[in-house]
Amino acid sequence: DNAVFLFCERTKGGKRTLALAMSEDGVSFHISKGGVTFKTKNKKAESLSSCSNFRITKVKDIYVCLYTKKVRGIPTLYSATSPDLFHWTALGVFKKDHETGMIVPDYHVHGMPVMYMGGNAVSVAYSRTDAIWETADVPVIRPEKRTSRGGTNTYEVGSVWKSDDGVELVY
Q1: DSSP class of 10
Q2: What is the pLDDT of residues 75-101, one digit of tens each?
Q3: Cα 170 to Cα 158: distance, rounded to the nearest angstrom
Q4: CA 163 distance to own-chain centroid
Q5: C-alpha to C-alpha distance for 62 and 82, rounded to whole angstroms
Q6: Neighbours of 27 (CB within 10 A)
Q7: Residue 109's closest CA among 168, 169, 171, 166?
Q8: Of 18-22, 70-74, 120-124, 142-146, which gets the smallest average pLDDT?
Q9: What whole-number distance in Å separates Cα of residue 59 and Cα of residue 162?
Q10: Rounded to whole angstroms, how far apart are CA atoms 74 and 123?
Q11: Are 7 and 17 in contact (CB under 8 A)?
């Protein structure tokens, strides 16, 4: 299956929604008629108005989405799962101290899946249970210096994949 999928943001009647665009060749896309839904475990619709940075990985036979949601102005990493890319179950806060993240598809260390997360540094985490992720003590990439305004740089994990040479990370 060589299909390419993209989330598309739409604003309809002042409400922000997501749609799924699909392509067989990676060039010509068509947007699905039905929207993408995120619902909590209680079947309540998750508001996507303050969400961004959606990163999706297929893990076994389920899709895992890590995304940024601003809560009281603070970017926080949230997670959701889906069997089909259209219907998502929002699982809530994933990691409070990170803003973006993505699980490396088809890659394991000592039998554990691996995830890279961004924020004030790029960190790596491993999971023994798929539900609980342990962040390594030392970041993979940390800021070298403060910005001219006195703050630190932040890192956004763009994409990550397994290659013949190891893991490739775009940040």
Answers
A1: E
A2: 888 999 999 999 999 998 887 778 899
A3: 5
A4: 20
A5: 6
A6: 7
A7: 166
A8: 142-146
A9: 13
A10: 19
A11: no
